[in-house]
Amino acid sequence: MKLLIGDGNNIDFNDSIQMTQKQKQDFISFLSTQFAVVEEEQYEHARHQRLGDKLFGRSWTQKEYEVLFDLKDTKKVSEMLGRTWMSVDIRRGFFMPTFLDWAREKNVDIINGEIKSLIQRFLKDKQHEIETRKFKKKQIKALKEEYDSWPKRERWYKILLAGGSMKQIEFDKKKQEREAILQTIKNIEDDIES
Amino acid sequence: MKIFVDSQGFVDLEAPVHVTEAQKDAIIQFFKQNFNDFETEEVQEKERYVGDKVVTNKRWTVKDYCLILSPESKNVYALSKKMDRSTMSIRMQMGDFVPSFMIWLKEKGYAFSNDERLVEKFMKEGKKT
């Protein structure tokens, strides 16, 4: 097995590793001594791209959110979660206004109250919002892919047009649909930010 | 972090993990002790391209910090216009300044507030420069 060590202080496997049940348990137990949140999840499709191939994003779990809002500085939280300080900073920045607003609305003491249970209450209240945001982001990604695939599709439509399998009016409609995608993306983005 | 496990017993990281030097050394040590064929390879990571946009660094004032602590912070877009700063700049300060300020308030035994005098005191004590 090979461990990839990046020049930006990230690590990765060069491929998934076959482990015995004991090795897996030892590995997860060991990681739990280094990081605050380690969760096992079943997967079906292997990850083909590795450290150095692209920039990676990692989803945030409920338990990680609990650490994120804990009263600890950014550096400490980034170490606990195995994430960059910038990733922690940005994620905190996105949720902090909502958290403060929620605390004002509920009239809870976020400084001297039991922060862990407050965070859990907040996350429970906001779960639907978080799920909706995730769904909308997925929608944006799919729409962007559709928008970016236009040159390839346009070539194909022109072949169909030349062969008589597509009418000019249908082709124009496809072009209009493509432009509408941009507006839809903007609307969803505005919706997420509002 | 998530550790992916498949039905064949293959284990993988969900994505690369950011580590401190101490964490990296401990991980290497763990694999050396538990896997015979262990080796490491140094790789160059992809960098995020920021572009050629000129970024001006406007100093954050006590009043600015009071604003991001106020109920106005609910609408970051409106705040961005009011403060003439990007939404990202505001969010990043919220992510960094607000938790640090809250830790300080707790240490000092204050309640949450966007009182200018408190923010000023916090800044003077060198918690935030």
Helix/strand/pairing category of chain A: mainly alpha
- Average pLDDT confidence of chain A is 88
Indicate the low-confidence ranges of chain A by residue numbers.
Answer: none
Helix count of chain A equals 7
In total, the number of strands of chain A is 4
Identify the overall geometry of chain B: elongated
Q: Please state the CA-atom Rg of chain A, rounded to the nearest Å.
A: 23 Å
**Largest sheet descriptor of chain B:** 2 strands, antiparallel
- Helix percentage of chain A: 55-70%
Write out the strand line-up for the largest beta sheet of chain A, numbering strands in chain order.
1-2
The fraction of residues assigned to DSSP E strands of chain B is 5-15%
Mean of pLDDT of chain B = 88
Report the major sheet of chain A.
Answer: 2 strands, antiparallel
The tally of beta strands of chain B, per DSSP, is: 4
Distance between the termini of chain B: 32 Å
Strand content of chain A: 5-15%
Largest interface chains and counts: A-B, 82 and 68 residues
Radius of gyration of chain B: 22 Å
Structural class of chain B: mainly alpha
